[in-house]
Amino acid sequence: MKTDSYNELTELIELAEKVADKAEFYKNKLFNLRLQILVFTICTFGIFALLAYMANDYNFKTDNTQFSILLISIIASLIYIFVLVRQNSRFKKYYFHEKKTLARLLEMTNEFKLLAFDNPHLSVIEKAMVEMRLSRINFNE
Question: Is residue 56 scored above 80 in pLDDT?
Fold first, then answer.
């Protein structure tokens, strides 16, 4: 006979699994955004170096088409980097919120696990399943 504490425990585990998946999604998103920021920053500085070389070596005038294209590319890249940095800070906030929620859920889960495991009607397999599900939740950081 499954008790209310066991049912509540399984609900908490399901919620913790969903929150852990969401935290992992935000972690991956943060990694991708940081990689994009790095690549675009390197490209922007490369374009800037090319622009500086061309301006110094060829004495370009400000009405030159190549100079204008490079300048617009730098400005567009800087705007894109700014947008990526803003997204990065937003996803970082979401990620830490999910990790905080997951920590609280795991704390509650441990409390309910003690209550549910005190039930003599709970089978060894059900206890093992709970333990396995809890061990699969990634809470590394």
Answer: no
Confidence of residue 61 (pLDDT cuts 50, 70, 90): low
pLDDT band at residue 18 under the 50/70/90 scheme:
very high
**CB burial of residue 98 (10 Å; 0-12, 13-18, 19+):** buried
**DSSP secondary structure of 1-15:** ---HHHHHHHHHHHH
* 67: Cβ contacts below 8 Å, ≥ 6 apart: 51, 54, 55, 60, 61
DSSP one-letter code for 123: -
With 90 as the cut, is the pLDDT of residue 101 above it?
A: yes
Give the sign of the dihedral formed by CA 58, CA 64, CA 69, CA 70.
positive
* Strand ranges in 19-138 using DSSP code E only, listed in sequence order: none
Q: Where are the domains of the chain?
A: 4-136
Q: Provide the strand spans (E) within the chain.
A: none
Q: Which amino acid is it at 37?
A: I
What is the C-alpha separation between 58 and 65, in angstroms, rounded?
A: 13
pTM over 0.85: no
